[in-house]
């Protein structure tokens, strides 16, 4: 597409509908806006950055962009990992972080309505204070709710509670031409035509800009306990997961981790993990409304793990122990990035739960075959694995062909195992080619048709998810 460059006339108009102290151009644009958390996928400078504060402002900005064929990249906190919120075609970067009001916590209907820029951690704090629970639990708590919705973020609790899509009930959306659309609401059931709301979830800002979101809440569980379970071998660890999921228990989370990654996190955080006696661990959590209820569940799982080769079962039933374990788990990504300052690439595949062991072992073999340090961890309970290839001391000439081959092999393996190329990070611009290989031409044609219906000028986050009509 041939896009129009942003001119001073455009900037003056954008200031007139917003405010001078919320419009940045040229040297005023902070370098943070040129990339997300994966700088390895390149830096792209927007021509102008606008911090919107209302749906009406977003609408006026989009009307101007649509009329003048200027690309617009919506952005939350910029914590993505696939280049989904970077302006690869320049144009306008539309930041929603100042749209950070919690509009309503409806305790009668168990619903919350927020502006898209509300941080996940702030929303969790607000609903918890009212004895309510927002189950989606992506690892990056400084992400915005809007960003979570646009990538259909999952997190650690998906095995029991599902992902962000399962909690979105309504949205206020600004379309590419500036029209404001309201879809869904506080209702539980809705069979009223095509679900535009569900099309928007996971669309990465390519179909519309969500400015307000209504989500379902639950009563807050009164008790929670975690189990840290070291295993004698990697195979025993991973192969125990299907047995846990087939048991009568329903864990809140089932996380897989290895000693090397734990050691990276220890160094990053400057504190010790409770146990490093093994190479492979499961971290399980359980919640409920009474200690007795949870004890019955986790005792059965503990005995099951021991029968499958677990070396021990450490019970985390105090806040101090819980914090020690889960803060380490939450630091894995930053710890791995810190251990390889020259760069890394990441793979966010999801496979059927009974194929997790196959994929984990396959990646361990790639580590040996290519001589590239590979670290992996993830949500073993829902089949979503995060795999990181670390550049370390490799030269650019060594690194590039190796990492490209490894990534291709991993995505091919995920497809072979009936999986998908992304479980929760999205496609962005970095994984577009892999998406096409995974879903095939007929599906890509449908996705491109949907994109064209919502955004015929291809000005909304162009180059992401689908990069052509």
UniProtKB/TrEMBL annotation:
Domain FAD-binding PCMH-type: 41-220
Example GO molecular function: FAD binding
Signal peptide feature range: none
Top-level taxon in the UniProt lineage: Bacteria
Cofactor(s) essential for the protein: FAD
Keywords of the record: FAD, Flavoprotein, Oxidoreductase
Pfam families: FAD-oxidase_C (PF02913), FAD_binding_4 (PF01565)
Coiled coil start-end: none
Family: Belongs to the FAD-binding oxidoreductase/transferase type 4 family.
Name of the protein described by the UniProt record: FAD-binding protein
């Amino acid at each position: 597409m041939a896009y129009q460059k942003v001119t001073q006339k455009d900037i003056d108009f954008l200031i007139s509908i917003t405010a001078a102290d919320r419009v940045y151009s040229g040297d005023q644009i902070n370098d943070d806006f040129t990339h997300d958390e994966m700088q390895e996928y390149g830096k792209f400078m927007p021509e102008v950055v606008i911090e919107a504060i209302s749906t009406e402002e977003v609408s006026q900005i989009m009307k101007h962009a649509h009329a003048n064929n200027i690309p617009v990249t919506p952005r939350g906190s910029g914590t993505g990992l696939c280049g989904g919120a970077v302006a690869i075609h320049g144009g306008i970067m539309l930041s929603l972080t100042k749209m950070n009001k919690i509009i309503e916590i409806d305790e009668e209907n168990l619903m919350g309505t927020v502006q898209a820029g509300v941080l996940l951690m702030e929303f969790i704090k607000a609903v918890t204070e009212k004895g309510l629970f927002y189950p989606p639990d992506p690892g990056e708590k400084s992400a915005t709710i809007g960003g979570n919705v646009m990538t259909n973020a999952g997190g650690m609790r998906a095995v029991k509670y599902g992902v962000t899509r399962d909690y979105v009930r309504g949205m206020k959306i600004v379309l590419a031409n500036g029209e404001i659309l309201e879809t869904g609401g506080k209702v539980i059931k809705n069979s009223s035509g095509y679900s535009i709301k569900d099309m928007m979830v996971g669309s990465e800002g390519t179909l519309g800009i969500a400015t307000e979101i209504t989500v379902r809440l639950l009563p807050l569980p009164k008790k929670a306990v975690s189990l840290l379970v070291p295993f004698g071998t990697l195979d025993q660890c991973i192969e125990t997961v299907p047995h846990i999921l087939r048991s009568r228990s329903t864990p809140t989370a089932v996380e897989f981790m290895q000693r090397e990654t734990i050691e990276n996190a220890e160094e990053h955080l400057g504190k010790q993990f409770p146990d490093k006696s093994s190479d492979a661990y499961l971290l399980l959590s359980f919640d409920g409304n009474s200690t007795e209820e949870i004890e019955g569940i986790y005792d059965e799982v503990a005995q099951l793990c021991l029968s499958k080769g677990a070396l021990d079962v450490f019970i985390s039933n105090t806040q101090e122990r819980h914090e020690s374990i889960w803060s380490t788990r939450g630091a894995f990504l930053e710890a791995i990035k810190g251990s390889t300052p020259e760069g890394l690439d990441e793979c966010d595949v999801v496979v059927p739960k009974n194929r997790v062991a196959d994929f984990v072992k396959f990646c361990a073999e790639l580590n040996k075959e290519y001589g590239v340090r590979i670290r992996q961890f993830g949500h073993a309970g829902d089949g979503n694995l995060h795999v990181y290839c670390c550049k370390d001391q490799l030269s650019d000439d060594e690194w590039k062909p190796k990492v490209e081959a490894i990534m291709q092999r991993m995505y091919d393996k995920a497809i072979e195992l009936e999986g998908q190329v992304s479980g929760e990070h999205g496609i962005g611009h970095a994984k577009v080619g892999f998406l096409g290989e995974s879903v095939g031409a007929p599906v890509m044609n449908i996705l491109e048709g949907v994109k064209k219906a919502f955004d015929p000028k291809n000005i909304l986050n162009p180059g992401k998810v689908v990069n052509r009509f």
